[in-house]
């Protein structure tokens, strides 16, 4: 596979192989979101290409609003750096339709097995609920990019 990587030109071929949902992952540029949509994907997965391998890129959360705009109604999923319920709320406010996590549930697994995973997921959801309540948001529909303010 590494000797013959897939390119954008291969996307229609890949789409023709299955009726299963096709999701393009690692999308952080609006041009790539448009190419993926034009190639027939069912969703865009905005994420970095492995923060543990490539540590110096633009944070995916900074790319999310432009990717959502370019997706033009196609579902956009997000991950990359999600460590808290507050991170989940931010990603949803910036336009993500769904948010995934990586490391936090693995930490829970390592420390407590399945019970550890359940604890991590419950903690993330509880923190997201508290963040929304404290900030005055009653539903996910109220989370919009206008609700965000960049603090430097």
From TrEMBL:
Domain spans labelled FMN hydroxy acid dehydrogenase: 1-152
Organism: Mycolicibacterium elephantis DSM 44368
InterPro entries the record matches: Aldolase_TIM (IPR013785), FMN-dep_DH (IPR000262), FMN_HAD (IPR037396), FMN_hydac_DH_AS (IPR008259)
PANTHER family per the UniProt record, alphabetical: FMN-DEPENDENT ALPHA-HYDROXY ACID DEHYDROGENASE PB1A11.03 (PTHR10578:SF143), S -2-HYDROXY-ACID OXIDASE-RELATED (PTHR10578)
Coiled-coil ranges (or none): none
Highest taxon above the source species: Bacteria
Keywords recorded for this protein, A-Z: Oxidoreductase
Names of the cofactor(s): FMN
Stored Pfam families: FMN_dh
Gene Ontology MF terms: oxidoreductase activity
Full protein name: FMN hydroxy acid dehydrogenase domain-containing protein
């Amino acid at each position: 596979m590494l000797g013959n990587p897939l390119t954008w030109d291969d996307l229609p071929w890949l789409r023709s192989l299955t009726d299963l949902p096709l999701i393009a992952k690692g999308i952080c540029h609006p041009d790539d979101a448009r190419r993926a949509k034009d190639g027939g994907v069912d969703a865009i997965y905005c994420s970095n290409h492995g923060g543990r391998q490539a540590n110096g890129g633009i944070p995916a959360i900074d790319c999310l609003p432009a990717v959502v705009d370019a997706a033009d109604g196609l579902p956009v999923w997000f991950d990359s750096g999600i460590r808290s319920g507050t991170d989940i709320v931010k990603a949803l406010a910036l336009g993500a339709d769904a948010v995934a996590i990586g490391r936090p549930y693995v930490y829970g697994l390592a420390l407590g097995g399945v019970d550890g995973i359940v604890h991590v997921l419950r903690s993330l959801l509880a923190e997201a609920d508290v963040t929304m309540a404290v900030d005055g948001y009653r539903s996910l529909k109220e989370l919009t990019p206008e609700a965000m303010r960049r603090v430097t």
